Amino acid sequence: GSTTYVVDASRAVGVVAGLLSETDKAKNEAATRDEYIRIREQFARGQEVKARAALPVARANRFRPDPQTPRPSRPSFLGVRAFDSWDLQDLADHIDWTPFFASWELIGRYPLILEDEIVGGAAKDLFKDAQAMLKQIVEERWFTARGVVGFWPANARGDDIVVWTDDSRTEEAARFHGLRQQIAKTNGKPNLCLSDFVAEDGEDWLGAFAVTAGHGELEIAKRFKDAGDDYSAIMATALADRLAEAFAERLHKEVRTQLWGHAPDEATTVQELIEEKYQGIRPAPGYPAQPDHTEKATLFRLLSAEANAGMHLTESFAMTPPASVSGLYFGHADSHYFGVGKIDRDQIEDYAAR
Question: Is the full-model pTM beyond 0.90?
Answer without folding.
Answer: no
